[in-house]
Amino acid sequence: MLTGRRFVIGGLSRLTARVARALRDRNADVVVVGDAERDGDTRQVVDLLGDDVVVIDPGTDRDRALHDAGLAGAAGFLALDENDLENLRFVADAHELAPEVPCVLRTFQPELADAVARELNIRRSFSVAALAAPTIVAAAMGEEVIETLRIADEEVPLCIVDVHGSSVMAGATPEAVKAGTECAVIAVRRSGGAWSAAPSGEDALGEGDQALVGGRIQDVLALAVGNATRKRGGRRRRSVPPGRRRTPIMHATLLRVSALLFMAVFVLATVVNLAFVGNDLNDAMTGALSTAFGNMPAANPNEWLQWFNFAVLIAAVVLFWILVSHLTALVLAERLELRMSRRARKAHD
Predict the structure, then answer these.
(1) Please, are residues 175 and 181 in contact by the beta-carbon 8 Å criterion?
(2) E strands, the chain, where?
(3) CA distance linking residue 349 with residue 339, whole number of Å
(4) CA-to-CA distance for 124 and 117, rounded, in angstroms?
(5) How many Å separate Cα 340 from the centre of its chain?
(6) pLDDT (tens digit, 9 = 90+) per residue, 180-194?
(7) N or C: which end of the chain has fewer CB within 10 A?
């Protein structure tokens, strides 16, 4: 319990509300320094904090606000705003006013986290992206990261891994798992049982067990990925070279049908020009092609021939643009497949 200990939080964010409530649930005193009227989100955060959390608006004097919040005697200062620059300002002011108070910095940039941790003597500096990445990757693999610790310059995720029949941990002792994966087995939950400390000696892990493992981020994620791959049978989809990909069936079918109909209209118009207009083959084909591309032929005393030419013009123009649209779609699809294939090769494994 944290009874009698006071924590000062800089910035109003959703994370501020969650951390403040967690501290209050442990009977700690919490004071938040932040602009409650900055926007609608900050006003909602103030409502989430409740009446038992003191909120101080810094106005134009941040130093005064931190002093009024009791920073000098606080057990810790946490900069939790959603803006990296604002958090950096909070930490710099807190370090200047009360250098003995440990600080925790929230930032979205790992490089900034490492730099300020050294320069400002911050006890803990966390990058949100670095903390979230192991959780997201492990979730994709069917595992669960429950916590990410920071030890020196390393992020150390604690991950719950299921032990199945083809798992890399099945039948292995915790010592063997550590030797083979560089990950330590911290606790084990036997099938249907409760969590207990990792077994020692020859007591091996079995199918249906769960293991809580910890280690360097790359080792833990490699274990999760390897465990998930074996769970799926270790089979991967083979990529097909771009040149061997099949043309989508719908585009190919419509393209062929449109081309055949266009040719049929062109041949029909040529035959009509030969038979009823009295043109030779060259003039008949030229007239049919001109009509197909939207040029209405000269007036003809035969009314039905005028209507025929009008119908040919509409049908040919429609079919021609259908052809153009499908050819464009095929070219764009092929180029997109080439680009995505190149990206996939770069992102392999």
Answers:
(1) no
(2) 6-10, 29-33, 54-56, 76-79, 103-107, 124-127, 144-151, 154-162, 184-189, 195-197, 210-214
(3) 18
(4) 7
(5) 17
(6) 888 999 899 887 788
(7) C
